[in-house]
What does this fold into?
Amino acid sequence: MEDILILVDEKDNFQGYMGKEEAHIKGIKHRAFSIFVFNDKKELLLQQRALHKYHTPGLWANTCCSHPRYGETTDSAVHRRLPEEMGFDCELTHIYEMSYEVKFDNGIIENEYDHVYIGRYEKDPEVNPEEVQSFRWISLPDLMAEMEDEPEKYTFWFKKIMKEFDFTAIL
It folds into this structure.
């Protein structure tokens, strides 16, 4: 069954509901979240998106990202989706919000009001191969250098968050 997304305006005010596919075809703004999990070495856990994803397949992104569903709070959605994608859960703290819109070559439009969460975890994940191709831990300086040298390897929203939010200030 298709996920039913929560539609919002530019200030994250509820506007209604729509199926995930229709929202992404029409480019309707909807609520989303992005999770950034760090270890004690201040390394960020990245995921490489599965190669069959409907957009940005094979690109590197933050630890986990998705959408709250109909009837679900964002705080509960992050604790549903992190185990589904990465095989673990941890304490998560909401730290930042941003909005973006990007159109992909296949006609899909991501128009999201994104809630950003941070967490800590020390073990390697047990990724769901339906969602995640690979994972790796990386320091923020190394990540920023890679993003500068090879930006095409990373998702749009991940690069935007990394540019706008200073994680070093809270680690």
User: Anything to note?
Assistant: The mean pLDDT is 97. Residues 85 and 112 are 20 Å apart (CA to CA).
